[in-house]
C-alpha cells in the first residue's frame, strides 16, 4: 500500500494482523456466505476476540480506541476480504458514534458493557419513506414519567436482529420538523423490540439487513442521547464522521479487484501473449490503479483531518462519493477484464461489483452527497 511509509509501527502491526485474519478466515469463505445470504456468526466471534468490532470505542471502556486513520487502514483490509462482513463489524462504530458526540460517560460505559464481550450494535435512522430524506421520521418517542415509549419501524438496518443494542432516532415532538427528533440507546431485549423482514440484497450479503420494529417499547429516560430535539444533528454529525471509515472498505474492494486483475492479466494469454501485454487491458488496469490511489488518499485525508479535530462534512462527503463511484467503476472494469470469467460466480470478481454498488447508496446516496457538497459551496 502506498501509504506504508506514513504508518506507525503499531498501525503496520495491526494492518498485518487483520490482513492475516482476512486471508485465513474471510477470503476462503466469502463466496459461501454470499450464496447462503448469511452473517458468519462464528467468524465474527473470532474477529471479536481480536477486538475488531471495537475499533472506535475508547480503551478506558474496553475498546481499541483507534483513531480514524488507523480505523481506515484496517477497514480497507477487511474490505479486501468481504465487504458484507466489514460492514457488519463497522456498524458498531455507527452505533457508537452518537454516544461519542453527545452521550454521557455512563451511557458510553453501558453501551460498551453490551458490545465489548463480543456483540454488535446497529444504527436505526432510516425508515421506508425516509432514506435520503432522513428528517422524514415517523417513529415516535413519547415521554411517560421517567421513560419514553417508542413506536415505529426502521428499515434497511445493518445488524438488524443480531445487534444487542440499537441507536434509535425518533420524534419526541411532532410539528417541529427535524428539530423534533431525538436519539436513544435501546437494548434489543427490551419488550416490544422485534425484527421484521430480512432484505435479500444484491451485494454485501454477509451482512444481516432487516426491519427493526418498536412497539410500545419503554426506554429509560436516561437512555436519551444528548437533549430532546438534538437527534437530527447527532445523526448528521455521526454520518459525517463515519463516511470515511466506510469508504475505506470501498477502497479495499477496489484493491482486491486490482489484485485479482493483475494476477489474471499475467496468466491469461490471447493472441500468443498475456492479456496484460495488450495495451487495451494494461491501460484499464492503470486507470483502476489511478482511481483507487486517488480514492485512498481522499479517504485518508478525511480521516486525518478528523484525527486533527477537524470535522468537515464537505471532505467527508467528497471522500465518500469519490470512493463509492470509484469502487463501482473499478469493479465494472474488473469484470470486463476477466470477461466471461468475470461474469461467472466461480470467480470472485462479479461479487466485488455487486458489493461495490451499495457504496453509491448507503450512508447517504452519492446524489445526496452532491446536495451536501454543492450546498456547502453555494450557501
Ligand atoms: N452537521 C451538523 N448539523 C447539520 C448537518 C451536519 N452535517 N446537516 C444538517 N445539519 C443541521 C442544519 O444546520 C440545520 O440546523 P439549523 O436549522 O439549526 O441550522 C438542521 O440540521 C436541518 O438541516 P437541513 O435543513 O439541511 O435539513 P434537511 O432535512 O434539508 O437535510 C440532508 C438535508 C440532505 C443534508 C439530509 O437529509 C441528509 O444528509 N440526508 C442523507 C441521510 C442519509 O445519509 N441517509 C442514509 C442513512 S444510512 S445509515
For the record, the count of structural domains works out to 3
Helix content: 40-55%
- Specify Rg, calculated over alpha carbons: 21 Å
For the terminal residues, how far apart are their CA atoms?
A: 38 Å
What form results from the Cα inertia axes? globular
> Stretches where pLDDT falls below 50 for ≥5 residues?
none
What percent of residues are in strands? 15-25%
CATH class of the largest domain: Mainly Alpha
CATH superfamily of the largest domain: Butyryl-CoA Dehydrogenase, subunit A, domain 3
Q: What would you say the CATH architecture of the largest domain is? A: Up-down Bundle
The third-level CATH topology of the largest domain is Butyryl-CoA Dehydrogenase, subunit A, domain 3
Q: If helices are DSSP runs of H or I spanning 4 or more residues, what is the number of helices?
A: 11
Q: What structural class do you assign from the helix and strand content?
A: alpha+beta
Question: Are any ligands bound, and if so which?
Answer: coenzyme a persulfide
Q: Can you write the helix and strand succession as a string?
A: HHHHHHEEEEEEEEHEEHHHH
Total count of strands: 10
Verbal overview:
By secondary structure, this protein is of the alpha+beta class. The chain folds into three domains: 4-115, Orthogonal Bundle (Butyryl-Coa Dehydrogenase, subunit A, domain 1); 121-228, Butyryl-CoA Dehydrogenase, subunit A, domain 2 (Beta Barrel); 233-378, Butyryl-CoA Dehydrogenase, subunit A, domain 3. The chain is built from eleven helices and ten strands. It has helices spanning 9-26, 30-36, 41-49, 68-81, 83-102, 105-115, 231-267, 279-307, 313-343, 349-357, 366-378, and strands at 121-124, 140-144, 147-158, 165-171, 181-187, 193-198, 209-220, 224-225, 269-270, 273-274. The strands form three sheets. A four-stranded mixed β-sheet has the order 1-4-5-8. A hairpin with a 2-residue loop joins strand 2 and strand 3. The model has no long low-confidence stretch (mean pLDDT 97). Residues 123, 125-126, 131-135, 178, 232-233, 236-237, 239-240, 313, 362-364, 368, 371-372 line the site of coenzyme a persulfide (COS).
